[in-house]
Specification:
The complex is a heterodimer of chains A (about 110) and B (about 475).
Chain A: H1 6-44, H2 52-64, H3 71-87, H4 97-101
Helix pairs in contact in A: 2-3
Chain B: H1 3-8, H2 15-26, H3 29-33, H4 35-41, H5 45-73, H6 77-85, H7 92-123, H8 134-143, H9 145-164, H10 167-194, H11 199-207, H12 217-230, H13 237-243, H14 252-281, H15 289-299, H16 306-339, H17 344-364, H18 366-396, H19 398-406, H20 418-440, H21 445-468, H22 472-476
Helix pairs in contact in B: 2-10, 2-13, 2-14, 2-16, 4-14, 5-12, 5-13, 5-14, 5-19, 5-20, 6-7, 7-9, 7-16, 7-17, 7-18, 7-21, 9-10, 9-16, 9-17, 10-14, 10-16, 11-14, 13-16, 16-17, 17-18, 18-20, 18-21
The chains are: A mainly alpha (about 110), B mainly alpha (about 475).
């Protein structure tokens, strides 16, 4: 009867972590986030739509491409998030009060 | 895009429903009867390293792009193309994707019929009955054209019945039960397999590492093909499923990471379920119909609780193929119902009847099915993927999509590294693998048929949309850069 080599056992462990670990992490994280969002929306009617990193990148892109055919839509989405952050009590993403106060509409 | 269209459109009832629809669509026969063997034949662990690398660098970014594209446009395939290209013949690239989906489902439906037939016989404990001969049983089944056509008819009628109920009441209700049931079935089979004496030989076949395989181009080509085709990237499935996402849903974590890795996990589960059992009994491993319908069937009478394991395997296998067929058909149903005046009911009945009729030759002849399968797997599906990647990467632009749809409400932030992957890397690899197929099959009937598909489908798509969008062109194209609203 064959016994599994240490190398094969290590690969089996790596495979389980790389596939089931990552898939399980993604599944739990996304379902938890959905739960948090639903709770926030039920409590305050809306939720912030971008993370600090995401909104900063969007703002930078708008500044760099003011005449882009998609710029108007981008501005609307940017402003929507800024307005949400300024009106809600608890943001979904990790926003600090200082970061929120420093935000301006585009 | 009008607000009316947005509010009238159906949405997934839950996040779990969306995720299971993605997994249900992507997990198909290939995960169960191809992936384990390819893995074992290409260096085991070495193949996994190559495959995981390509999954993270190609499949995850690609699925994020396709899902986000559908979520951004909130339309089916043709509507999404029109949104970024503007009305006209070029929208025919979307028609190409739809035509490929129809062709794919026309031969996939008879294949679902096979798994349904074997699942039925597993419930009757036929495989563990005295004097059962697996190969003779399969050959007699494949030679029975009337039975094949009957099963194909039952499959398409069942698909139509589910789709008639709609996205939330039909597709979602099925996938939230079927996908976990499939995973549980395979998991029970894993437990049975690894507790058999001699099971470690099967694990050694699948997970032993032969690093030299990483230096072979064939390993990387197999891994690339698996990463591109097993995940269903660019077939319009992720686009369609993504178009039903709710306003606050995330794309990259669920539509990208979970779908690509979770879908591939089923292949690993199948390897863990199948090889320990096969090797414990001393049967030669195989791929395709030979593995599922001969090798495994021969094994069931030899192991304790083999009849029950047969039910688990074929039950799970049937669910894997059926959920794929369901969502593949939904791609066409969503698009046609948006593009025509047909109601959803009328669309479902028309599309399913059309696919049924087109699938008759594949149901009648297994050889024809094999031919169409190889032709579309090697040429039709990559063509559809290229069409979608072209619309995203070269028309709308990945940077715009990333800012407007990918990172909006996202569970993880996607940085600028993603843009060149979607625009350059994935299409280049896809063209490379098509070139490899051409080299490998040069002059063969399959290659000639593939060339016909590569030329005829875009030409037909262009012609259809030139006529269909003729009236729209002048009225909306000028004031709607990148879209029709």
């Amino acid at each position: 009867m064959t016994t599994l080599s240490l190398e094969a056992l290590t690969m089996l462990g790596f495979t389980l972590v790389a596939f089931y670990g990552v898939a399980g992490w993604a599944l739990i994280r996304t379902l938890r986030q959905e739960g948090q969002k639903v709770e926030l929306i039920e409590g305050q009617g809306r939720v912030d739509t971008y993370s600090p990193k995401g909104l900063a990148a969007l703002g930078k892109w708008i500044d760099a491409h003011p005449d882009d055919p998609y710029a108007e839509e981008a501005r609307e989405q940017y402003n929507e998030c800024v307005e949400a952050l300024q009106t809600i009590d608890q943001p979904f993403y990790d926003w600090s009060d200082t970061e929120i106060k420093s935000l301006d509409r585009k | 895009m009008s607000t009316d269209t947005k509010t009238a459109r159906a949405e997934w009832g839950t996040r779990f429903g969306f995720l299971m629809a993605m997994i249900g669509a992507m997990v198909g026969a290939g995960n169960v009867w191809r992936f384990p063997f390819v893995m074992g034949q290409n260096g085991g662990g070495a193949f996994i390293v190559a495959f995981v690398t390509l999954l993270f660098f190609i499949a995850v970014p690609g699925l994020i792009a396709e899902t986000a594209f559908g979520r951004y446009t909130k339309k089916g395939v043709i509507g999404s193309f029109r949104e970024v290209l503007g009305p006209g013949g070029a929208v025919g690239l979307g028609v190409v994707v739809v035509m490929v989906n129809i062709a794919l489902m026309s031969y996939y439906s008879p294949l679902i019929g096979w798994t349904m037939y074997y699942a039925g016989h597993s419930l009757l404990f036929s495989f563990t009955s005295a004097g059962f001969e697996a190969e003779a049983f399969m050959n007699a089944f494949f030679a029975n054209s009337a039975l094949m056509i009957g099963l194909h008819t039952v499959v398409m009628a069942t698909v139509a019945a589910v789709l008639l109920l709609g996205i939330k009441r039909g597709v979602e209700r099925i996938v939230v039960v079927a996908v976990p049931a499939m995973v549980i079935s395979l998991f029970i089979m894993v437990i049975r397999g690894i507790t058999l004496p001699g099971a470690t030989e099967g694990l050694a076949f699948a997970f032993s590492i032969d690093w030299v395989y990483l230096t072979y181009s064939s390993t990387w080509i197999e891994a690339l093909g698996q990463a591109l085709f097993s995940t269903g990237l660019g077939w319009g499935i992720a686009l369609t499923v993504g178009s039903y996402l709710r306003e606050y849903d995330d794309v990259p974590l669920g539509g990208g990471v979970f779908t690509a890795i979770g879908e591939s996990s089923i292949g690993i589960l199948a390897a863990l379920a199948i090889f320990p059992i096969i090797f414990a009994v001393g049967v030669e491993p195989d791929a395709g119909a030979g593995l599922a319908f001969v090798s495994l069937v021969q094994v069931f009478p030899e192991i304790p609780l083999g009849g029950v394991i047969g039910i688990m395997f074929f039950g799970g296998f049937f669910l894997a193929t059926f959920t794929s067929g369901l969502v593949i058909t939904e791609v066409t149903v969503t698009t046609i119902s948006e593009e025509t005046r047909l109601s959803r009911r009328g669309t479902v009945l028309t599309v399913c009847t059309g696919i049924w009729a087109l699938g008759l030759p594949s149901a009648y002849s297994v050889d024809f099915l094999d031919f169409v399968d190889v032709t579309f797997a090697n040429w039709g599906l990559p063509l559809a993927t290229l069409c979608i990647l072209f619309a995203i990467g070269w028309v709308m632009g990945p940077e715009r999509l990333r800012h407007l749809a990918v990172n909006r409400n996202a569970g993880i932030h996607i940085g600028s590294w993603w843009d060149p992957v979607v625009k350059y890397l994935t299409p280049t690899l896809l063209v490379f693998i098509m070139g490899y197929f051409a080299y490998d099959q040069f002059g063969s009937d399959v290659m000639i048929a593939g060339m016909v598909v590569l030329v005829a489908f875009p030409v037909a798509g262009y012609a259809i949309m030139s006529v269909a969008d003729g009236g729209r062109q002048t009225s909306t194209a000028v004031d709607a850069p990148g879209g029709d609203d």
